[in-house]
Design brief:
Pseudouridine synthase; alpha+beta; single chain; elongated; 19 strands; 3 domains; Archaeosine Trna-guanine Transglycosylase, Chain: A, domain 4
Length: 325
């Protein structure tokens, strides 16, 4: 973690979002507590959902895009016997008379849905249709027609089955899926396939890429640390490349930092383990990531420069605006 040039901080905080606030609300809170203007998150959670919400501050916001495609993991409660206008607990629900379900039947359906699938997003989603958000069209009573998208349901494992109300049982499911998957749509589609209707009653994101719920910081702990000023926030901050440890890293010298800052390719003195790669993180002498590069035949070509160029003749140089691939 370090202070960014605007007086804020560079780094990542793994927030344990509670049910209730939006992801945007959490970002706003972190922005205020850290006094940092540049803050973003690594994948929206619906207001009723809880769990892992990676929040990126300062220069780390420029790496957010490399986290958005990471696989996700959830604990989802799927309630049968009713449909919902929003496919979750917040919508208007309608009872459906369908067949009695057993644990064995539902587990078989979970197994049948696993794998690459085409999934239609919920009508109440942020997907754009002709420049308009689908949820706004749905709220206005307009017909919403959304194109299916390719997602991967890596695993759907039953954790708990409760049929104490036989007409309205529920299942708690461990969901491992690709980015872009709507867990609400999984519940909706299961209810359709089983003929009982279903909706998502609760959702907790337990992992987002390399970030895990057990490492996440609750909002009250975040506020407590913020009361201690920058040092308190720093104690919660991970380096800007947290979660990207599996990407190739290349050590560069101060002179090579200067060249990358000027948009010039450089061949690091330490030979690259991977000579050709679409994304390599260049690490400066102080151990901090200074640039995102493309490696071609062992040469680093800068795509995004995160570090300020070293001073010339005692005068600081601004970070140059480079074209971003």
């Amino acid at each position: 973690m370090k202070r960014d040039r605007s007086g804020g901080m560079d780094g990542v905080i793994i927030v344990a979002k509670p049910s209730g606030p939006t992801s945007h609300d959490v970002v706003g809170l972190v922005r205020r507590l850290a006094a940092t203007p540049r803050v973003g998150h690594g994948g929206t959670l619906d207001p009723f959902a809880a769990g892992v919400l990676p929040v990126f501050l300062g220069g780390a916001t420029r790496l957010t895009e490399y986290h958005l495609g990471a696989p996700k993991r959830y604990t989802a409660t799927i309630c049968f016997g009713e449909t919902s206008t929003t496919d979750d607990i917040d919508g208007d629900r309608t009872r459906l008379d369908g067949p009695r379900l057993t644990r064995e039947v539902v587990e078989a359906e979970l197994a049948a849905m696993t794998g690459p699938i085409q999934q239609v997003p919920p009508d109440y989603s942020a997907v754009q249709v002709g420049g308009r958000r689908a949820y706004r069209m749905a709220r206005a009573g307009e017909d919403v027609v959304l194109a299916p998208r390719n997602v991967v349901l890596e695993a759907l494992d039953m954790l708990e089955w409760n049929d104490s109300e036989p007409d309205r049982p529920y299942a708690v499911v461990d969901v491992r899926c690709s980015a872009g998957t709507y867990v609400r749509a999984i519940a909706r589609d299961m209810g359709t396939r089983l003929g009982t209707g279903a909706y998502l009653g609760a959702l907790v994101r337990t992992a987002s890429g390399a970030f895990r719920l057990e490492d996440a910081v609750p909002l009250d702990v975040l506020r407590e640390h913020a009361a201690d000023g920058p040092a308190g926030m720093a104690a919660l901050m991970l380096p800007i490349d947290a979660g990207l440890e599996e990407l190739p890293h290349a050590k560069v010298t101060t002179e090579e930092v200067r060249r990358l800052g000027e948009g010039l390719p450089t061949g690091p003195k330490t030979p690259l383990v991977v000579r050709d790669a679409p994304l390599v993180l260049a690490v400066g002498p102080n151990g901090a990531v200074v640039a995102l590069c493309r490696a071609v035949a062992g040469i680093l070509h800068p795509s995004k420069v995160l570090a300020v160029r070293p001073a010339t003749d005692g005068r600081p140089n601004p970070r140059p605006p480079l074209a971003e691939d």
